[in-house]
Design a protein that fits this description.
Methylamine Dehydrogenase, Chain H; globular; 50% strand; four-stranded antiparallel β-sheet; mainly beta
């Protein structure tokens, strides 16, 4: 009988060693955090704080209720408002306090300051909108899609939609890197547009890219639900994969959101309590081992205070 080759055993050994090294090589740390009471059991989808005291969260039940939560005391108390009959998916605020929120069926909300009421607008396309951002010239961009397809991006000036672009792939997140340049990501797609012009698709695939954040005009980060982390240092002209979630030797990490305080110090959160921290621009990551096991979907940090929300309705506060 022919004996198995020792080369096969050696190959299997080294393959297993690579897997173990990739899963065990990150430093594990503990983080001091507290859970705040949302008074809801619904999914919370997006969080944004304009300062350490004033914060906003949106969420809800997909086809039944859309909620807005607000606090003026750093989350000690949250006020819950029922905005719509469908879930809200994204919230964002300008430095001047003007806020925007988006949801299902083209729902678009705006408020002129953090303490004012939301004003409802219906956008011309009844799409599932997932994210919203803005630039310094009062242009607002919203993106969305459903079922990994039917992507849409809409530019808004004032209360008027000035441009609508559609894509085969769902778009899940959008971010300006400067006043003229906007970036969007989604299901196997990374886009860039300058000066309100046509979208340029980057030669990047291999993951469902869920979130994007630019801490500065040149440096930006993207994460995917398959475990990919990408970084640009030239304003999105070129992206480098600093973690390729499609590689066999890399364990799957269901990332959902990314936030960087500056070019080097940042956070990633994801499903099953995934919480990573880097202090050197993604070269190394520390794994928070004592966080909640909720599916974490959104993170925002302001003046050393961080807030994370989850699909299970959790609100979590931590300090850097």
């Amino acid at each position: 009988m022919q004996q198995p080759s020792s080369k096969i055993y050696l190959s299997s050994f080294f393959f297993l060693a690579l897997i173990l090294a990739s899963s065990c090589g990150k430093e594990k740390i503990e983080l001091s955090w507290e859970k705040q009471n949302s008074n809801l059991n619904s999914t919370l989808t997006s969080v944004y704080f304009t300062d350490v005291n004033t914060g906003h969260i949106v969420g809800g039940d997909t086809w039944y209720k859309g909620y807005s939560l607000s606090t003026i005391d750093g989350g000690v108390n949250w006020t819950v408002d029922s905005l719509t009959n469908k879930r809200m998916n994204g919230v964002n605020f300008k430095p001047n306090g003007q806020g925007f929120a988006v949801g299902i069926d083209g729902y678009f909300f705006k408020k002129e300051s953090p303490l004012e009421d939301w004003i409802f607008y219906r956008l011309p396309r009844w799409e599932i909108l997932l994210d919203v951002c803005f630039n310094e010239t009062d242009e607002v961009m919203v993106v969305g899609g459903a079922g990994f397809q039917d992507g849409v991006a809409m530019r808004i000036q004032g209360n008027a939609v000035t441009q609508i672009d559609t894509f085969e792939n769902e778009l899940s997140a959008v971010c300006y890197s400067n006043a003229a340049t906007v970036h969007a990501v989604g299901y196997g797609i990374v886009l860039r547009s300058e000066n309100g012009g046509a979208w340029e698709r980057q030669d990047i695939e291999g993951d469902f890219f869920r979130a994007i954040h630019f801490p500065s005009p040149e440096v930006g980060y993207v994460v995917g639900s398959g475990g990919t982390i990408m970084k640009t240092t030239n304003g999105g002209f070129k992206w480098n994969k600093i973690r390729d979630g499609s590689k066999t030797r890399v364990s799957n990490k269901p990332f959902r959101d990314v936030f960087f305080v500056d070019d080097d110090y940042g956070y990633i959160v994801g499903e099953n309590g995934l919480f990573w921290i880097t202090e050197n621009g993604g070269d190394d990551w520390k794994v928070v081992k004592n966080f909640s096991g909720d599916d974490l979907v959104s993170i925002h940090v302001v003046d050393g205070h961080g807030y994370v929300v989850s699909e299970q309705g959790g609100i979590f506060h931590f300090q850097e």
